[in-house]
Amino acid sequence: IVFYEGKTPISPETFVSNFNHVFVIVEPLMIQGKRYYRLHMCRKQGVAPSRPKFPKNPTFAKNQLKPFLLTKLINAERCAMSASQFRRPNEKVRSELFADLQQQFPKKSRSRQSSSDGP
Question: pTM here?
Answer without folding.
Answer: 0.68
